Amino acid sequence: MMLSDYVCDGRFGRNNVRYCITLWGDLMNVIWFVLIAVSIAGALISGHTEPLTKALFDGARAAVDISLFLLGIISLWLGVTKIIEESGLIHRISHFFKPIITSIFRSVPPDHPAITSITLNLLANFFGLGNAATPLGIKAMQDLQTLNRDKETITFAMMLFIVLNTASIQFIPFTVVGILSELGSAQPSAIVVPTLCATVVSAACAVLVLLLFRKIMR
Q1: How far is CA 198 from its chain centroid?
Q2: CA separation for the pair 140, 121 (Å, rounded)
Q3: Do residues 195 and 174 touch, judged by C-beta distance below 8 A?
Q4: Are residues 84 and 93 in contact, defined by beta-carbon separation less than 8 angstroms?
Q5: How many Å apart are CA 185 and CA 188, to the nearest integer?
Q6: CB burial class (10 A; 0-12, 13-18, 19+) of residue 202?
Q7: C-beta of residue 125 within 8 angstroms of C-beta of residue 140
Q8: Which of 103, 140, 187, 217 could cross-link 117 (Cys pair, CB 3.0–4.6 Å)?
C-alpha cells in the first residue's frame, strides 16, 4: 500500500485515514471482481474452460511461490533494519545523509526524529525494498505529524514526503531483480538503468508539479 492511500482530500485525520483505506479497498475489490468475471465469462462463451482451470491453479501456485520468496527478502531487510537501529548505526547513516534530507525538508528541524525516519524510508526505496519501506514511511508520517499544528490538515513536508515516497527513486531494485531471477530471466539486472532513469524523471516531475500547485494555491 502506498502512503498516498492515506491521504484523500488533504486531511490527515484518523477518520479520514479509515475512510480512504475503505474507499481504496472497495474500489480494488470491484476491479478484481470485474476482471475475474469477464475472464470466466469469456472462457465459458468460447469453450476454453480447461485452459481457464489450468491457469487458475498455475496462477495460485505461482502466487504462493512468489509470496514465500518475497517474504524471505522482506524478512531479511526488516531484520537488517532492526539490527542497524539497535546497534546505533542508524544515527550514523542519518547523520551522513542529514545535509541532503534537511536541505529538502527545510521545515523539519535537523535533530527531529522525522529526519531519521525519512532517511531510512528513502534508502529502502532507493534499493527497491518498497515493502520494507512501508512501515518506515508510516513512522516518518507519524513523526512529521508531531510538527503539525493543525492535526486535521496535511503539511507541505508531508506532501513532499508522500511524493518522494510514491515516486521512490530506485538505484538497485532488489525485489524486482530477485523475482526476475526466480522466474528464470537471462538478464535480471538489465532493468537497473531503465528503472533508475524512469524513477528519477518521475520523482523530478512529481516534485515540480507539487511546487507548481503550491505556488498556484497560495
Answers
A1: 16
A2: 8
A3: no
A4: yes
A5: 5
A6: middle
A7: no
A8: 140
